[in-house]
Amino acid sequence: MKKTTITYLLLAAVLTAGVALSSSCTKEEGNARRSSVSDKPIAFCVNNSTPATKGLDPLDNDRLLNFRVWAGYAQSAFGEDSRVDDWIAGDKVSKQDDGSFSAENVYYWPIMGTLTFFACAPASAVTAAADPRTGSFRAPFAPEQTNVTNQVDFCVATPVVDAKVADGGTVNFNFSHTLCYVTFAARYTDPDGILARTGFKVKVDEIQLMGVKGSRDIVVLPQASDFFSWEDNDDSATPATYSLSRSAAQQHLADVALTESYSDITYLNGRLYLLPQELTEEAKIEVCFSLNANDNNTVSKFYFERALPASPAWTAASKIKYNLTIDLSGMKDIQIQATSGQWLDDWADAGNNPADKTIE
Q: What pLDDT does 18 receive?
């Protein structure tokens, strides 16, 4: 089977806004109430091998255009005293023409104390998050449903904890995937020889995933070995539906005739980035396929709804491919088989040169 390497950028959800210091302020304004401020500006960079957000294959660092940063100040160490203030409250950091990254505002290191940093990508995915004094960092995230083309590869960075001005002045982020990447392949079986007699072609017209969670909170724990997790929120109980179509306007699915071997039918616009979750009996898939004449006119359409296989579960940084087998015997059945594989979610441990993962 085709080898695929997909990597997500990891979005770190954190602290709600306090007061961000802008470049129009003097260093004494805003920061002086917490700590003396140095003359050294805070610089940002990313691991050179970090993959980017949703875009044309291959996903690589060239397509990482922006991310969002939060930072909390502590007098001694993060979590060890009650005084943790917002130092950077969700500012946008963008790639410059020379490949470097700059925040929209200029921030300076404190002379005393430490800063703990969080980052997420792309910058549009999360704009507000929980107060740092709660001890954890939480933000809601909901993959786009209305037009899945606008879904993003939501990533969070490993928190940079208790950084000091003496560490060099540059904060280096390593991002990880947070979502489950879902694609589709399809084939047909035709034991009665319907296609041979008629010359018809089989195409998948629409796919709908229904009854799954469309909103959850990502929680980042700066000092935990597994530094992020997903938890339900008030909107998690509302079922989500994700629709794919091969229409010319949407082009989520490939406009190709199926064969008796599995063919990938998911176009770039239709790749799904979905929330990690255990699939319940409410999770369904509806598939619409059609018989088409040689002039590509549709002869007839058929709809089938089935339960999504409970296994494998949708886990963070995993890839799930649903293989659809359309049985043309009486047009009565469609079978679904899921295969999965785990992406590398610890880029640093991979030596920044991870091998392809084969999904079997």
A: 32
